[in-house]
Amino acid sequence: MSIARGVETRTVRLTFDGRTATAREGQTVLEVARERGWYVPSLCYHPKVGQAGLCRVCVAEVDGMAGLQTTCTLPVRDGMVVRTDTALVQAARRMNVDLLLSAGVHDCLACEATGRCDLQDAAYRLGIDRPSFPRRGELLPLDASSAFIVRDPNKCIHCFRCIRGCNGTVVNDVLDMGYRGDRSVVICDDDLPMGASSCVSCGECVQLCPTGSLIEKKAVGLGRPWELATVRTTCAYCGVGCQVNVHVDRAANRIVRIDGVEGAPPNDGMLCVKGRFGYDYTSSADRLTTPLMRRSRSDALAPATWDEALDFAAERLAAIRDRDGPDAIGLVACARSTNENNYAAAVFARAGVGTNSIDHCART
Ligand code: SF4
Ligand code: SF4
Ligand code: SF4
Predict the structure, then answer these.
(1) Residue 166 CA: which ligand is closest?
(2) Is residue 272 within 6 Å of ligand 2 at its C-beta?
(3) Which is the closest atom of ligand 3 to the Cα of 163?
(4) Confidence of residue 360 (pLDDT cuts 50, 70, 90)
(5) What is the radius of gyration, based on Cα positions, of the chain?
(6) Residues 265-285: what's their mean pLDDT?
(7) pLDDT, mean over the chain
């Protein structure tokens, strides 16, 4: 038994492909395998949107249980013996992945998701080099109406991850599965183009999609995952401090795309439209890289050094304070600054200038 955050959790022991593992009661078999880095293909499960049991690619045999079990929905039990290295499991997984590949159009060579696609990885691990069954039905049109996202329904495997994320995680309630049977397709609102729907372009669905069915528009053609460096950092926009992975083409000195960091506070992978897609300012020719000063009211703004600008501001503030008193000066802090910067601004106003006239733009 162990105690985590004041809650007692029982530990259980199970055997997984001959390896013994200790797990916390309440975990699923898939979670235990993932924690240990044991590869189990799964396409519909994502830790943030929870169990699904839809794709049936994560199946395993379990001693004492009839038929194949989906490990993403199977709670661990003490003494459980799980097998994924059997011919039956491998054949079932291969058939399920083969059917998913056969139902869509999977041109991996040209696909933006190549190298970060769970379906491609599963096919590779299972030794599937091409779909076995002929594809039925019409090619469905791309939806490129959104400013930031391209939807390709031909690469959708109906895993519901985007739908569960949009409705349950970011609670924007835009996506649903429309139509029925082999005509099922992810729809926005009442089957509107994404760009005309109530989508707020948070990109959570793009981050959750395990295939190339939802892709960031601006990143198309700018680099494969293995060509990009990933830099973990804090979003530069506001003081929330969302954790992001910035994927960078170092040779071109260019940001290719940004993801939220899954499992990390405060955002657990979620981002707003600015944090995820609004990174063009970093390479904007209009970006200020040096202070601009207007030395008198009639002067135009002109570049200055930081020392010049800071000295000028300090002299002018001191002159106003000495002439009119500290309450002639007010300071408005910025919602984009961190708590630490806003604290420093308050100390500067109160202790440096001597005024309590300090406010924050988020209140207006
Ligand atoms: S979605 Fe995945 S499997 Fe399909 S074409 Fe793209 S990389 Fe290949
Ligand atoms: S971008 Fe956000 S709001 Fe729009 S469909 Fe995706 S998850 Fe929903
Ligand atoms: S668009 Fe992607 S996340 Fe959504 S159901 Fe299709 S494959 Fe799954």
Answers:
(1) 2
(2) no
(3) 4
(4) confident
(5) 27
(6) 95
(7) 94
* Pocket lining: 156 vs ligand 1, CB cutoff 6 Å: no
Cβ of 172 below 6 Å from ligand 2: yes
352 lies in which domain range? 292-363
Mutate to test the pocket of ligand 2, among 49, 145, 169, 174 (most ligand atoms within 8 A of CB): 174
* Phi, psi values for residue 246, rounded to 5°: -100, 120
CA-273 nearest atom, ligand 2: 1
| 202 touches ligand 2 (CB under 6 Å) | yes
pLDDT of residue 5: 55
Q: 352 φ, ψ to 5°?
A: -80, -55
pLDDT tens figures, 40-92:
999 999 999 988 899 999 999 999 999 999 999 999 999 999 999 999 999 99
Number of domains the chain is built from: 4
In this prediction, residue 338 carries a pLDDT of 78
Domain boundary among the residues 109, 131, 153 is at 131
pTM here? 0.87
In this structure, are 142 and 199 located in the same domain? yes
Q: Is 106 in the pocket of ligand 3 (CB under 6 A)?
A: no
Residue 257's pLDDT is: 97
Identity at 341, one-letter amino acid code: N
Query: Cα angle vertex 45, ends 39, 46, to 5°?
Result: 95
Task: Render the burial of 124-159: b for 16+ CB within 10 Å, e for the rest.
Answer: eebebeebeeeeeeeebeebbbbebbbbbbbbbbbb
